[in-house]
Amino acid sequence: MREFSRDGATVILILLHTVVTATGAVEEGIFTNHFLVQLHEQTDDAARQLATEHGFDSVRKLPFGEGLFHFYPKDIPQARRRRSLQHKQRLEKDHRVKSVFEQEGFGRRKRGYRDINDIDAKMNDPLFTKQWYLINTGQADGTPGLDLNVAEAWELGYTGKGVTIAIMDDGIDYLHPDLASNYNAEASYDFSSNDPYPYPRYTDDWFNSHGTRCAGEVSAAANNNICGVGVAYNSKVAGIRMLDQPFMTDIIEASSISHMPQVIDIYSASWGPTDDGKTVDGPRELTLQAMADGVNKGRGGKGSIYVWASGDGGSYDDCNCDGYASSMWTISINSAINDGRTALYDESCSSTLASTFSNGRKRNPEAGVATTDLYGNCTLRHSGTSAAAPEAAGVFALALEANPDLTWRDMQHLTVLTSKRNQLHDEVHQWRRNGVGLEFNHLFGYGVLDAGGMVKMAKEWKTVPERFHCVAGSVQESHKFTSDKSLVLTITTDACQGKDNFVRYLEHVQAVITVNTSRRGDLNINMTSPAGTKSILLSRRPRDDDTKVGFDKWPFMTTHTWGEDPRGTWVLEVGFKGDSPQRGIMKEWTLMLHGTQSAPYIDQIVRDYQSKLAMSKKQELEEELDEAVERSLETLMSKN
């Protein structure tokens, strides 16, 4: 330990001859031929003369401390295990020198950059290095570090073992050599042909490859020299063929979504109403009943987990007009491309919970999602939110292996808490924080799924408290509005306080709305919570020319107020966006609150979160520095 005086203050330099690693192990120091030299005389000329005399090519005055100079060679320093005693002793004997310290070398790494060979996930599958959404090292012009962080979950030993995921789609090629070993025949069925063999129907253009590609993302086997690797490569995959027929029926949908709910853990759906920017549609009566039964009775009462692609309608559509993606019973997943931007086909809405990945926006042939394809083939061209939902199902399978007792609501809470902003950015919608400090984005939800973070939290997770529903209030009077002036309505609520169904901590919030307009596509609806969190319930859809149907008791849903206290005044703002004058009549707004009476984890999380927010970055760094100094001193003292 040495002291330097500057302007009456004492600066303490702690010189350690060891390096303490992140695991607490002590390593021998690495020495360089760079020296910190303090001179009695502080002029640059004196320092340059001294450096030249002692064989140093360069010298630089340091802006901190009195008379401090950096003596160093021009060439890149060579790492050595022993100190350069000769240099040091000669300098120390010079009468112009007050003190000398040889600089030690230690490791620092670029945040985000990772070499795939440095990650303990060695796979011999030929497409593994191209699966940037698993481990992104910058392949295909992507952003290093922007991935699902599956490597951490795998290193912890979680690979989806014991979990079954059903792909509800156009069938899967269960004979594919990368899927066959993980295929769950017992849990599979073909509701299009009414037989137990959900093999895709052949077409010349391979149109029915969708389900097979989704299945590979989830459960493609590892280390078999075939195609790539699934997110949960030891999970079981079931095929539910239900899309390949001229039209859909409520019976087929309901039968598919309720198929073997005690065997199937997760249902992945990469489909929904037409993404044409003018359709408003959702599940019919039987399918709604099947979903309700699934979350209440599936998996032995823990609840079936439904994962839904948010939609590919782009800026022309709004996923809150899709009753499957906007359902409270589903986990709606959007996508980001490999550099963190939004995909051109991404729909935005307040019901999206989180995001995974689709393809790259650039024309790089390897920027798509690498997975299995029909007839034993592989592909690099899977894309869309179709690709995003199965990735999420795979991450959830890892979490279920870590904790099989997770309920369907536990999985949603884990998604909210562990998803990360990472390097996602949306040019239209900014990242914001809700009333309890949770960061969200109108398009990406709570961020990109983090498999490592989710399995670690899942291991110690305690099931959330009972869920309650409260009708917070309703505005039933008709109100007219035009393009000239927005309609503003309010509901002040105590959230059923004092009753059995009191809701104190929010999960989902629904605004059930009946409204008719001269042009439905120009309608814009926003809702603000008592905590000040604004949810965009409906954005403009320029292709929607409806003048008659409007929205009839349509349940617009938001997840953005998660964890907030719903008591207080809610504000609904309804207006038009567009070039032509429009008019409308609002007939009903009913506010539905869903959540818990006791804190599932919110109190402690919020306290921790808000204490961090209240602390400046400088203070955080100072605290980390103090801790590092204490650890270093303890290590030094223990060695002495």
Automatic annotation (TrEMBL):
Assigned GO CC terms: extracellular space; membrane; neuron projection
Limits of the P/Homo B domain: 463-599
Protein's cellular compartments: Secreted
Enzyme kind, highest EC tier: hydrolase
GO biological process: peptide hormone processing
UniProt function note: Serine endopeptidase which is involved in the processing of hormone and other protein precursors at sites comprised of pairs of basic amino acid residues. Responsible for the release of glucagon from proglucagon in pancreatic A cells.
PANTHER family: NEUROENDOCRINE CONVERTASE 2, PROPROTEIN CONVERTASE SUBTILISIN/KEXIN-RELATED
Protein name listed in UniProt: Neuroendocrine convertase 2
Natural source organism: Megalops atlanticus
Lineage of origin: Eukaryota, Metazoa, Chordata, Craniata, Vertebrata
